[in-house]
Every structure is written in structure tokens, then in C-alpha cells.
Amino acid sequence: MRKFGALAEHLRQVGLVPNGFHEPREAPEGWLRLAHSAAYVDGVNHGSVPRGVEKDIGLPITPEVGRRGRLATAGTVLAGKLALEHGMAANTAGGSHHARYEQGAGFCVFNDVAVAARVLQADGLIKRTLIIDLDVHQGDGTARIFEGDESVMTLSVHGARNYPDAKAASDVDIPLDDDTGDTGYLNVIRAAVPRALDGFNPDMVFYNAGVDPHHQDKLGRLALSDQGLIDRDWFVIDAVRSRGLPLAAVIGGGYGADHDAVGVRHATIHKVMTHYLVEA
Ligand SMILES: [Zn+2]
């Protein structure tokens, strides 16, 4: 949890938020129910999530955790709306991609990207969304929520041996071997991302820029360097923006005992977006 504060502090320190952050209000129940069952949303909002579900999530669902989930989700909705307005935006949280329709899982309470995609669709702002999920773990919750939904394409590139053991079926899944490294990883991204964009023809893109493929990550196995993450994010941004599409990013996973180091690593997406804006 402490990485979030470290990320925000780092972004301020390096001057990326001279006018302050856009701050969301908590996601209302009506938004959350676009991607989750009414029973689960009620459970989180009223502190009555069953013990077994809390175990799947890995956290006790206290009022604070519920509030955090609603704020992170609203942050991704806000990033989506800002991306539609300005071309690009990034949340400083979000990417809770293991949460599925009927419950959370794997440290994920609400599937913020799924909620955001559905809110923007319901508001008539977009029709077709591509979700590019490059967190080291499969976006299994997202894949399950949008299974059979032809208006949303899910692309997940992840470590084959990472959580979850039982993988879901995204529209495109690319499982990678341990220690894939920068070159092999970037070759995969450079093929898969343009193919998805041109094949699906979305009108906006959500991007889970999880930094857990990094070699120092406690949970990841793909052995990417700092530069590998920079090159990955740059490629995704350029692929999306050069096609004139709005891009909303979320930070996804990143794990380690050094919270400051993880927070700084998460700032990669915000820094690369800023560089892209300056250069493009
Ligand atoms: Zn992850």
C-alpha cells in the first residue's frame, strides 16, 4: 500500500504535477454494478464480504479498503474521461485486473478498468475498447468480465508461471517463459499490440502498465530492465497515439520490500507519457 504514496510524492518531486492531481470522487454503486454483481458491491460497501472471498482477495475488506477500491476505480474512470478530452491520461492507482464479476481476488477489490470501460460505454462516449494488459500476471478477471462481449477486446501478455494458476481466456493471451528479458519481450509487444489495434479497431485503449515484469520485482519472473519498461511503455503509447486513439493508463502491479523503489518504478508510465507529449 505504501508504494502509492511514494509514487505520488515522486511525481510531485520531479515536477510532473505542477498544477496538482485531478482527484476523483468515490465511484458510486451504479458504476460498480456495471462490472460486478450487486451482491458483491453491497458486500464491499457495507462491510459484509464473506470470509472466503476476503481470503481470495488476500485482504480484510474494511471500510478503508472499500473506500480505497471506490477511489481507485473512480480514478480510472476519470483517467478515461481525461484521455478522451486530452488524448492521454494516467491514474496513479488502478489495474485491479484479478477482480471478476462476482468477487475480488488477488489483492484486487473492484476491476477498475472494466468499470471504466463500461461507464464510458454507458455514457455513450465510446463504443469499442481495447484493453492492453502488460502486468506480469494474467488479466483473468478482466477476461472473464468481457468474455463474449464483442465491444471489448482483451489482450494479456504475462508470465506463464505467474498467478493465477487457472488462467482465463482473454481474446488474445501471450504467456511468456521465465527470464524472457527485454529483447524477447519487446519483440512480442511490437508484434501483438499493432495487430490488436488494427484488427479490432477500437475507439479508445486502456493500458495496464504493471511494472512487475521488472527483474527486481518480488513476484515477477520476466527479467525486464528499467530501460525495457521504458521502451515497452513508449511503444504502446506511440502505437495508440499514432493511430489517433485516446489512451488511459493504470499502474497495475509492482512488488518489493523497498516501497520507494517500487513507487519510482511505477512513475515510468507517467514520465514516458510526458516525454511523448513533449516530443510528439
Ligand atoms: Zn501483477
Describe this structure in words.
The protein is α/β, with parallel strands linked by helices. The protein has one domain (2-279): Arginase, Chain A, CATH 3.40.800.20. Helix content is 46%, strand content 11%. It has helices at 2-13, 29-32, 38-45, 51-57, 63-86, 112-122, 140-145, 181-200, 226-241, 259-279; strands at residues 88-90, 129-133, 152-159, 172-176, 204-208, 247-250. The longest helix has 24 residues, at 63-86. It is globular. It starts with a helix and ends with a helix. The mean pLDDT is 97.
Features:
280 residues; alpha/beta; Arginase, Chain A; six-stranded parallel beta sheet; 10 helices; 6 strands; binds zinc ion
In short:
By secondary structure, the chain is α/β, with parallel strands linked by helices.
- Which topology does CATH recognise? Arginase, Chain A
The strand count comes to 6
User: What is the C-alpha radius of gyration, as a whole number of Å?
Assistant: 17 Å
Q: What is the H/E string? A: HHHHHEHEHEEHEHEH
Which hetero ligands occur in this complex? zinc ion
The chain-level mean pLDDT equals: 97
| Cross-sheet strand order for the largest sheet | 1-6-5-2-3-4
N-C termini distance: 34 Å
| Derived structural class | alpha/beta
Can you name the CATH architecture?
Answer: 3-Layer(aba) Sandwich
User: Given this structure, which CATH class is correct?
Assistant: Alpha Beta
CATH homologous superfamily label: Histone deacetylase domain
Low-pLDDT runs? none
Overall 3D shape: globular
- What is the count of distinct domains? 1
